[in-house]
Amino acid sequence: MKSRLILFILLSTSVYAENYLLNGGQKSKIEYKMVQEIVPASGTKKLMISYVKPQSFYSPTYDQQIRNYRVRFSINPDKTEKWTDARGNEVIKVTWKKPEELITGIITFIAYNSTKLDYIHTTAPFPVQSLPQKTRVFLQPTKQVPAADKQLKRLAELLTVSSETQFDAVQQILTWIVDHINYVQCPRRYDASYSIETGKGNCQNYSHLAATLMRAVNIPVRIVNGVTLKQPYHMKTSRGHWTMRMAQGRHSWIEVYFPDLGWVPFDPQQMQLFVSNRFIRVEVGLDNEETVADGIILWTQSRGSRALPSFHESISVDFNSDNVNLFCEKQPYGPRKMLLSPPVQSSFSRIVFEESPAPPVLIPSGDLSSLVYQDSVMLGNLEFPKNITFLESQAPIRDIGDGTLMMEKNFLVETSEYVTTDGRKYAQIFELDAPVLLEKIGLALHHFGGDGQLWIELLKDDGDGNPSLVTATSTFLSIKDIPACAGYNWVDFPFSSSDLYLAPGRYWIALGYTGSPIVSWFFTYGKPVGPVRGTRYNTLFDETWSHHLAYEFNYRVVGLKGM
Fold this sequence. Notes:
Strands 12, 13, 25, 27, 28, 29, 32, 34 and 35 form a 9-stranded mixed sheet that branches. Strands 21, 24, 26, 30, 31, 33, 36 and 37 form an 8-stranded antiparallel sheet that branches. This protein folds into 3 domains: 2-23 and 117-287 and 325-345, Roll (C8orf32 fold); 28-115 and 294-321, Immunoglobulin-like; 372-383 and 415-562, Jelly Rolls (Sandwich). The protein is globular, with a radius of gyration of 25 Å. The protein has 563 residues and is mainly β. Residues 1-15 and 353-362 have low confidence and may be disordered. Helix 1 (2-10) packs parallel to helix 2 (150-159) and helix 4 packs across helix 5 (203-215). A hairpin with a 5-residue loop joins strand 27 (452-461) and strand 28. 10% of the residues lie in helices and 46% in strands. The chain is built from 5 helices and 37 strands.
């Protein structure tokens, strides 16, 4: 690891900076409703559920005001307990004795959420000085946040060696994470070390890694658990619009303590030096093993019983008002991947990564069909959870001792776009570094019904990173002929009707449809494979593909490589 880290610091000019400064804000009134259905297993002696009541929270970038919080059940619990834990979370725990019937719990409240991205002024120095005693607990290492690990501490020190302000140190660390970690739905572990070892992680990994590196250089960080909402929002740019969207479900992010600002939220997974008002903040702690009070299910059962309860959780929201006025401007510095930040008045380094120029792509002259095509090639954004019914998926279950079992909260969320509605057409870029004889292109789709046909149009790139002319069209697939599956899976569109030779370069996959199919296309947070502006949509009234999406669809290109 050491040699790799030193190489990262020393490599020397990049045209790939993707830092965007945001101005403006969001202000919304949100009616929130979570419904939980629990069917106790036979032999259950005692069933317990705990919740954390969301609190109002104020920061320089994000405010949350909670009103009319209420929890009610279809069957009254035998016992209700309330307390405030060591991190200030207000916990509610309810218990049923020998439950036998379906129990439905409903949580409702109103959230007045706002995000304000005006200039933030901070002069907090680095190394950090004069921390209040109550914030020092958030410097502690844990199993998931191994801030005392020598290699991770060395990385944090290398990243912040030239920092003179705390904001610069935080920016340096988050920039490194944005460029070196890719989002996956189902990591094998959730600790920071796993992300360093694999370069992968979900929201928990991102939070733990950011907390580890910051705590390692004496910056207090606490882990936040809450819920994100799927309501998209748009940001104006000089080249069109960026569309931001999260999945609706449980999420983990961080809050960083600044001596002159207080606690400030950041979301490393979403590549944001802030959080939007689509976040519902619920619980805080040292790590995600400590922030477990909200939405946790515990039970005891008769000796020899192996049956498990079934659990279903759904979230619905109504935006009674939603005012969004955001403008983002690209900067000539920053990470290679997208990073969104409010303007900050502070001393900080304008990070410009320097790297050896990529070798030129050699485009064969003459007829591409004269090459030999023999080696199979598959490329694309290939990793997504296949055949999972997200609404029915359950979190891991573990024995916590004394005959008590616990079902952990579920961070598996459905990240997908409904791509056959509103007169929109979606396109995803892919890049070839060698000639390819194209056989088929697969998309990670789930069809829910309807009728009609789907097909793919292969578009040329105009040389400036935009979809252009149609160069080929796939076989048309009837919705009725697409195999039904539990969740998302590959749907392949063959191009076998004629030999289609593709030269090295950029191409766009555009999904076409007729009739009224109901189809969703799975996407991955960030841009794990392609360029930042490589996912687009347009409408019937658009002459250009000026709508940019801040995520990347899952796709695969299959063929033979030319030699």
